[in-house]
Amino acid sequence: MLIVEGYVIVSANGMLADHHHVMPDALKFPQDQSFFGAALDRSDLIVHGRHSHEQQARSDERVRLVLTGRIEALAPDTEHPNATLWNPQGASFEEACHRAGVTSGNVAIIGGPPVYELFLDRYDIFWLSQAHNVTIEDGIGVFPQVPQLSPQQILTAHGLSKKETRVLEAAQNVDLAVWRRN
Ligand SMILES: NC(=O)c1ccc[n+]([C@@H]2O[C@H](COP(=O)([O-])OP(=O)(O)OC[C@H]3O[C@@H](n4cnc5c(N)ncnc54)[C@H](OP(=O)(O)O)[C@@H]3O)[C@@H](O)[C@H]2O)c1
What we know:
9-stranded mixed beta sheet; two-stranded antiparallel ribbon; 4 helices; alpha/beta
């Protein structure tokens, strides 16, 4: 069985990057980054779009699927070790996981917005970190429907509920909400 989990940190207004599609330093907090790194270390497979590689010290050890429209279905990724390129138009998620050699365990979905959206009906858990003191004007929302809808409204509409909130950085008002499928 595959357990699908989403991971993101957003600003108070639901943005994960600025209008240049760059994640600003204002969204980087040690407690969140160490939570994220540890979560990826315990994941069996990481899934992300071509611009959302996590670029951490242990990244090359992690098995991953990289979404791209530049191939027809599935192909080896010559730029990253342990990585497979995947075009969802040409191959199902299950086929992609099989090609990556992962048929059970935890799958970490780490963005960007089109990839988070693709899995909205599949998340078992969505880990939503939020920096409540940070606002990014004209940024890129975690889901394409943000800011017309909040991330919380979108997760609720797709059958998830907030079960727990953990404080990550009290002084800077950063927390982590754990959303689980109902
Ligand atoms: N704050 C956070 O926690 C967080 C999390 C994730 C990302 N980010 C930031 O967000 C920014 C990246 O955003 P982005 O919008 O560029 O997203 P992205 O999803 O990383 O990259 C977009 C590219 O991925 C491929 N792709 C995505 N969905 C696809 C699909 N359904 N089918 C085929 N190909 C698909 C396409 O590649 P091709 O052009 O090759 O077809 C597309 O151009 C970065 O700055 C990153 O650091 C922040």
